[in-house]
Amino acid sequence: IWQELVENYRKSLTSPSFSAWIDPAKPINLQNNILTIELPSDLHKNYWEKNLAAKIVETGFELTGEEITPVFIIQDDEPIVTKTQKDSPVELPNIVKKNSKKALLNSKYTFDTFVIGKGNQMAHAAALVVSEDPGATYNPLFFYGGVGLGKTHLMHAIGHQMLANNVDAKIKYVTSESFANDYINSIKNSTSEDFRQEYRNVDLLLVDDIQFFADKEGTQEEFFHTFNTLYNEGHQIVLTSDRLPNEIPKLQERLVSRFAWGLSVDITPPDLETRIAILRKKADAEGLEIPDDTLSYIAGQIDSNIRELEGALVRVQAFSTMKGQDITTSLAADALKSLKPLKEKSELSILGIQEEVCKYYHLQLKDLKGKKRVKTIVVPRQIAMYLSRELTDNSLPKIGAEFGGKDHTTVIHAHEKIQQLIEKDITIQKEVNDIKQKLL
Ligand code: ADP
Ligand code: MG
Fold it and tell me: Entry's HAMAP family (predicted)?
């Protein structure tokens, strides 16, 4: 889309305007039909909003049949479309901010920005207790639940709060994948000692999404020792996962049992009231004027994932900026119209995709899920993995498991491979689209 767009602009603008306005623009991503474009200055943003946004929608629609909404961000800025923005509601002292940065905490994920509701009440309470008295109560504290429900947010909030209480607190936040990578690199570079220093000398260790420890023997071994050291010294450990420890495949028994020493709390999807409250808070934080009935409408459209809820708000906001209209329920309905199919997509199953792919290529399901390495099977298998990743909410390990117990890295690889093929090879592109059509 981007190339097509740029070509269009090149034709319709004089070349000095082209190099002044278009050249510096950088497409960031296209997600949920929102095209994020990075621009170097406010001036550029104004120009794009006024003169070029409509063209994006037009070209986008021509090429994809979907309504693409452009969102412009300024370099090193947050993706926010309105110009009238209040300061963020929480003002942490500068020194805390600095340390938070060092700990790689997201400054937006604080207790102040967290809305408490039925599904997360317990988790929130436990997080507060732990941040006030780290290492002394629930250790480890373990959050589990579906994607986009606030696990990472709460984890960071604990970190911020601890720093607010004690600016010298040493805090480390990592995803389980970075932990694994750091560990592997430390072996490669013979820097195991540094690795240990880094992970065992902290007051609070936050490890996110530990379900990805599955299958990583060496990393689990190392984490076991990290855990023991921290635990024995009374340092706090907080972990998250999409499920309970004993449901994580191939997680060592000794880790499972240690994780149960503390407190495990689940976070469940927010009810309508909580979703409205979350939207209200975000809208206020961004200085948006949105009537109550419109907020209820948006909250009614997206019922599980809070990240999607936020996405919907961004989308509505972008629509209102683009059309120069206030945010109303009918505008919101318009903005969210093309998101609807997304919801149905999540009801697709991996098996459904596999069966459709088999039908399309005249293959047997057992071959698709098997290990044969002939091209006539490998490509359809990768396409099925690609579609499972694109069109369902299943985690990578889950998708791998459904393909005869393959590793999640195989799924990542397949996804990348097909993505490249789709760009290069129109036959593949067409085949993938055909299958998609049949599925949706
Ligand atoms: P998870 O780690 O469970 O997948 P995140 O913590 O990344 O989910 O949350 C997804 C998004 O939703 C984040 O932007 C987060 O700030 C927001 N969010 C989640 N729960 C709440 C809440 N209770 N109040 C306000 N925002 C929330
Ligand atoms: Mg998370």
Answer: DnaA_bact
